[in-house]
Amino acid sequence: MASGKAAGMLLAARSLMEGAPPDFGLISLLTGRSVAYLEQVARKEGWKVREVAAESRSGLEERLAALARRLMEEMEKLAFEALAGQYDKQRIDTLGTLLKLAERLEAIIRGSGYSAQKEQEDNAELAAALALVDARIVELACELAASLGCQTSFCADRGEGAS
Asked: Is residue 91 part of a domain?
Protein backbone atom coordinates (compact mmCIF):
# COMPACT_ATOMS: atom_id res chain seq x y z
CA MET A 1 0.00 0.00 0.00
CA ALA A 2 1.44 3.36 -1.00
CA SER A 3 1.67 6.11 1.59
CA GLY A 4 1.34 9.87 1.76
CA LYS A 5 1.39 11.90 -1.42
CA ALA A 6 1.94 8.81 -3.60
CA ALA A 7 -1.25 7.27 -2.20
CA GLY A 8 -3.21 10.39 -3.15
CA MET A 9 -1.78 10.35 -6.66
CA LEU A 10 -2.63 6.69 -7.11
CA LEU A 11 -6.13 7.21 -5.74
CA ALA A 12 -6.75 10.10 -8.14
CA ALA A 13 -5.27 8.16 -11.08
CA ARG A 14 -7.43 5.14 -10.28
CA SER A 15 -10.55 7.31 -9.98
CA LEU A 16 -9.91 8.82 -13.39
CA MET A 17 -9.13 5.45 -14.94
CA GLU A 18 -12.31 3.93 -13.53
CA GLY A 19 -14.47 6.62 -15.06
CA ALA A 20 -14.51 9.54 -12.67
CA PRO A 21 -14.95 12.77 -14.61
CA PRO A 22 -11.82 14.90 -14.53
CA ASP A 23 -12.04 17.92 -12.30
CA PHE A 24 -9.66 20.32 -10.64
CA GLY A 25 -9.58 18.29 -7.42
CA LEU A 26 -8.41 15.09 -9.08
CA ILE A 27 -5.97 16.95 -11.32
CA SER A 28 -4.67 18.70 -8.21
CA LEU A 29 -3.99 15.38 -6.51
CA LEU A 30 -2.22 14.07 -9.61
CA THR A 31 -0.05 17.13 -10.22
CA GLY A 32 0.62 18.31 -6.70
CA ARG A 33 -0.65 21.79 -7.62
CA SER A 34 -3.41 23.56 -5.71
CA VAL A 35 -6.96 23.67 -7.04
CA ALA A 36 -6.86 27.49 -6.99
CA TYR A 37 -3.69 27.50 -9.11
CA LEU A 38 -5.18 25.11 -11.65
CA GLU A 39 -8.40 27.14 -11.87
CA GLN A 40 -6.37 30.30 -12.42
CA VAL A 41 -4.34 28.68 -15.21
CA ALA A 42 -7.52 27.30 -16.79
CA ARG A 43 -9.13 30.76 -16.86
CA LYS A 44 -5.96 32.40 -18.14
CA GLU A 45 -5.38 29.83 -20.90
CA GLY A 46 -9.05 29.29 -21.73
CA TRP A 47 -9.32 25.58 -20.88
CA LYS A 48 -12.58 23.88 -21.79
CA VAL A 49 -13.88 22.81 -18.39
CA ARG A 50 -16.78 20.37 -18.20
CA GLU A 51 -19.29 20.55 -15.40
CA VAL A 52 -19.82 17.26 -13.60
CA ALA A 53 -23.35 15.98 -14.16
CA ALA A 54 -25.49 15.21 -11.11
CA GLU A 55 -25.73 11.53 -12.11
CA SER A 56 -21.98 11.08 -12.26
CA ARG A 57 -21.64 13.08 -9.04
CA SER A 58 -23.96 10.67 -7.21
CA GLY A 59 -22.00 7.74 -8.64
CA LEU A 60 -18.80 9.25 -7.31
CA GLU A 61 -20.41 9.78 -3.91
CA GLU A 62 -21.41 6.09 -3.81
CA ARG A 63 -17.90 4.99 -4.78
CA LEU A 64 -16.39 7.30 -2.18
CA ALA A 65 -18.74 5.94 0.50
CA ALA A 66 -17.69 2.39 -0.42
CA LEU A 67 -14.03 3.39 -0.23
CA ALA A 68 -14.54 5.01 3.17
CA ARG A 69 -16.28 1.85 4.45
CA ARG A 70 -13.37 -0.33 3.29
CA LEU A 71 -10.86 2.02 4.88
CA MET A 72 -12.77 2.01 8.16
CA GLU A 73 -12.97 -1.79 8.13
CA GLU A 74 -9.20 -1.94 7.62
CA MET A 75 -8.69 0.59 10.44
CA GLU A 76 -10.85 -1.55 12.76
CA LYS A 77 -8.73 -4.62 11.92
CA LEU A 78 -5.60 -2.67 12.76
CA ALA A 79 -7.11 -1.51 16.05
CA PHE A 80 -7.91 -5.10 17.08
CA GLU A 81 -4.42 -6.21 16.04
CA ALA A 82 -2.96 -3.41 18.17
CA LEU A 83 -5.03 -4.57 21.14
CA ALA A 84 -3.61 -8.04 20.61
CA GLY A 85 -0.08 -6.64 20.75
CA GLN A 86 0.62 -6.36 17.01
CA TYR A 87 1.22 -2.73 16.10
CA ASP A 88 1.93 -1.70 12.49
CA LYS A 89 2.56 2.04 12.55
CA GLN A 90 3.18 2.28 8.81
CA ARG A 91 -0.19 0.72 7.94
CA ILE A 92 -1.96 2.94 10.48
CA ASP A 93 -0.29 6.07 9.06
CA THR A 94 -1.11 5.01 5.51
CA LEU A 95 -4.76 4.39 6.36
CA GLY A 96 -4.97 7.71 8.18
CA THR A 97 -3.60 9.46 5.11
CA LEU A 98 -6.05 7.64 2.84
CA LEU A 99 -8.96 8.61 5.10
CA LYS A 100 -7.88 12.26 4.90
CA LEU A 101 -7.67 11.97 1.11
CA ALA A 102 -11.14 10.44 0.98
CA GLU A 103 -12.41 13.37 3.04
CA ARG A 104 -10.78 15.84 0.62
CA LEU A 105 -12.27 13.97 -2.33
CA GLU A 106 -15.71 14.19 -0.73
CA ALA A 107 -15.36 17.96 -0.44
CA ILE A 108 -14.24 18.15 -4.07
CA ILE A 109 -17.04 15.91 -5.33
CA ARG A 110 -19.73 17.81 -3.49
CA GLY A 111 -18.23 21.07 -4.67
CA SER A 112 -19.19 24.62 -3.97
CA GLY A 113 -22.82 24.07 -4.99
CA TYR A 114 -23.30 21.72 -2.07
CA SER A 115 -21.55 24.14 0.26
CA ALA A 116 -23.75 27.04 -0.84
CA GLN A 117 -26.90 24.95 -0.43
CA LYS A 118 -25.78 23.75 3.00
CA GLU A 119 -24.98 27.32 4.03
CA GLN A 120 -28.44 28.50 2.94
CA GLU A 121 -30.07 25.70 4.96
CA ASP A 122 -27.93 26.56 7.97
CA ASN A 123 -28.80 30.24 7.62
CA ALA A 124 -32.52 29.45 7.42
CA GLU A 125 -32.30 27.30 10.57
CA LEU A 126 -30.37 30.04 12.35
CA ALA A 127 -32.91 32.68 11.29
CA ALA A 128 -35.77 30.54 12.63
CA ALA A 129 -33.97 30.00 15.93
CA LEU A 130 -33.20 33.71 16.26
CA ALA A 131 -36.84 34.58 15.55
CA LEU A 132 -37.91 32.31 18.42
CA VAL A 133 -35.33 33.86 20.73
CA ASP A 134 -36.46 37.35 19.71
CA ALA A 135 -40.12 36.49 20.36
CA ARG A 136 -39.23 35.09 23.78
CA ILE A 137 -37.22 38.21 24.69
CA VAL A 138 -40.19 40.42 23.78
CA GLU A 139 -42.51 38.17 25.79
CA LEU A 140 -40.24 38.36 28.85
CA ALA A 141 -39.86 42.13 28.49
CA CYS A 142 -43.64 42.56 28.39
CA GLU A 143 -44.03 40.34 31.46
CA LEU A 144 -41.39 42.39 33.29
CA ALA A 145 -43.08 45.63 32.26
CA ALA A 146 -46.41 44.32 33.54
CA SER A 147 -44.89 43.23 36.84
CA LEU A 148 -43.46 46.74 37.29
CA GLY A 149 -46.85 48.23 36.57
CA CYS A 150 -45.87 49.69 33.24
CA GLN A 151 -48.17 49.39 30.31
CA THR A 152 -46.68 49.95 26.91
CA SER A 153 -48.65 50.20 23.71
CA PHE A 154 -46.34 47.57 22.21
CA CYS A 155 -47.26 44.98 24.85
CA ALA A 156 -50.93 45.98 24.75
CA ASP A 157 -50.99 45.45 20.98
CA ARG A 158 -49.58 41.97 21.51
CA GLY A 159 -52.12 41.19 24.25
CA GLU A 160 -49.36 40.87 26.84
CA GLY A 161 -48.38 42.78 29.91
CA ALA A 162 -51.92 43.60 30.97
CA SER A 163 -52.22 40.97 33.65
From this structure: yes
- Is residue 132 one of the residues assigned to a domain? no
Task: Judge if pTM exceeds 0.70.
Answer: no
* Residue 53 lies inside a defined structural domain of this protein: yes
Burial, 69: exposed, middle or buried (Cβ in 10 Å; 0-12, 13-18, 19+)? exposed
Q: What is the pLDDT of residues 21-34, one digit of tens each?
A: 777 777 887 888 88
Query: Strands, E, within 10-148: which ranges?
Result: none
User: Within 10 A of 95 (CB to CB), how many other CB atoms are there?
Assistant: 20
Q: Which residues of 30-52 are buried (b: 16+ CB within 10 A; e: fewer)?
A: beeeebeebeeeeeeeeeeeeeb
Instruction: State how many domains the chain has.
Output: 1
Tell me how crowded residue 20 is: count the other CB atoms within 10 A of its CB.
20
CA distances from 54 to 80, 83, 104, 110, 123 (A): 39, 43, 19, 10, 24
Residue 156 domain flag: no
Q: Give residue 44's domain range.
A: 4-117
